[in-house]
Amino acid sequence: MNHHQNPSYLVDIVCSLLSVHEVKKQLDSLTAIAIFRVLVYHLHTLFLFTRSDWKTIFLPATTFGTVTGPISSFEKWALVLVWVWTHLLQANVSNQNYSAGEDIINKPWRPLPAKRITERQAAILSLALALVEFVHDDCGLSHRPILKNVCNIGGYTTFETGATLIASPYMALDKISIQAVFLSGALIFTTIHAQDFADVDGDRQSGRHTLPIVHPEGSRVYILIMLVGWSIALSFFWDLGPICATALVLVGSFVGMRYYRKRDVLSDEGSYRYYNMWLLLANTLPGNSRFGVLSR
Prior knowledge:
Structural class: mainly alpha
Order of helices and strands: HHHHHHHHHHHHHHH
Number of strands: 0
Radius of gyration: 21 Å
Strand content: under 5%
Mean pLDDT: 75
Low-confidence stretches: 1-5, 135-150
Pfam family, one: UbiA
Subcellular location: Membrane
Number of domains: 2
Keywords: Membrane, Transmembrane, Transmembrane helix
Shape: globular
Transmembrane segments: 243-260
InterPro entries: Prenyltransferase_related, UbiA_prenyltransferase, UbiA_sf
């Protein structure tokens, strides 16, 4: 029986969470240096849960919130970082507990396939993080839109909305922020399959039907058109000057052409890194409506 459907498994999780006495006994038997090493090991494990999303979600979302909010103090900026990372961690621990099989092929360094943590321990961690997130949301600090039928849009706009609300001095979304979140959601919806090219082998084995699998040639033409088209559209919408607009279109064209021409796994991984650089640039553009620094 799948342990995720076994009621006794949930009982084991709860019991493990309550085993404070056993944890205390283990800590008492460790030296300060050993405790430090254990702490570093587990912090690194937590980092690995979110490693692949630093360039895809963490940096774009925190940058988006910083320039769209806009940020009003260092304390606000620190809160943005903590908010985005902790929510990203909670989502990733839960997701990766169900995708350990395909991660052996696509991302073997993740905590579960790397055997840094067991599925049972990941389930316990996911439950604990969910409880923390519930308390956080119950206090009213996490008002955000959730679009269940389009998970990628919901995920990105959730992180960006939360980061923007925290960064804003008024804890509210103004017209610029709303426009930015809407455009970001549309951008993600039309280009996020850029992440699927490098994962075709693992996705095919797991039975997924991603765009690069269903339409190998058409998906590459499509991503090229979308990156160039969005670069032009965003340049006009955010009123970029000729130099900045040209630079954005050139970056989008470079990434799109790279996806179209370079088709091996290593090249697709590199193209995805460049895509995230382009996405990061796109997320800074709303700041031009506030500061006008890109209109020259």
